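worker-3 :: picked Hopene-associated glycosyltransferase HpnB
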Amino acid sequence: MMVVGVLACAALAGWLYLAFAHGGFWKTGPGLPDAPAPDAWPGVVAVVPARDEAAVLPETLPTLLAQRYPGAFRVILVDDGSGDGTAETAASLADGDPALSIVPAGERPPGWAGKVWAMSEGVRAAGEPDFLLFTDADIAYAPGTVEGLVRAAVAGHRDLLSQMATLSTRTGWERVVVPAFVYFFAQLYPFRRVGRDGARTAAAAGGCMLVRRAALVEAGGLARIHDALIDDVALGRLVKRAGGRCRLDLSRDVVSRRPYPRLADLWAMIARSAYHQLRYSPALLAGTVAGLLLLYAVPPAATAAGLIAGPAGGAPALATGALAWALMAVTYAPMLRFYGLSLVRAPALPLVALLYAAMTLDSARRHRAGRGGTWKGRTLSGRHKSGAADASRAPLE
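worker-3 :: tokens ->
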């Protein structure tokens, strides 16, 4: 029981830090602040990289075209070699709306990741607007969202303002995996630290990233992150390291319409990039899995061991394990509430964390097998010691 007790104490120390000193990562926050209208409305161009998105565009593209933004607003959809009639579907949905331009992506240069190249093609076609709104083809916008984004960016002097979309939780597996996905993302990149000037934490959510064009140019442009597979985090780091001011929030007004009906779909989404995020490092992989086990598996295991051992020898393990488990559940509860799910799910977070550990290990296995993850008919595989991936096969979300 001594070893169990020591591990339980270490887990409790970790949760005390996470709950009270890790940027309040578990707080879902108020969202964008109300902000006054700018003196002059800046021009905005939305860039939508799209590959084989004909099925989802009817649910999303009209919501973007219907934005009643007071200033100049255009939408550029970059068709990256779709084989399902994505461009034709977009044109039909626009029905002659001059606000939409459809641009075919040119041949991708060596070394460029697929989505970043499509984004850069949209930037090239956009001209010189004040702001660029990078958004995914599966994202739907509530009325007035673009106006709210610009108000907040101008009033807050933000160079990058990103909104993490509300993801689908229609199916059972989505309800298990998705809230934990957002919770773990916020744990890695606490949103409050992203928005704090001088803090090293930098990130963004790829579904909705409003970027001041001048700040992007000053940071070196998308060419600086041309091989990034996790483009949103890379863009956040690029802008912030160049001195830009950033903000990241959860949003109910920005919604992903992409379904993940099966566990296999969710597994592929996470496994395709997990090992890349660890820079293809076996040491980081081992540390990550060990950390997940310590933080998430030890508390319930120590609680159970303490109960089995009884009051005589198991009280310390029981007390520390149960307290760590309780802190874990309490910090997870706001995310469940955000997604409208029962708080009864909160104590089961250790099981979901073990599932994520398995996905991470599988990501490494796929990489070592030379397959990487598969996404939209392309395969990811790391090739360089630096962790760069085979960009000619990079995914386009």
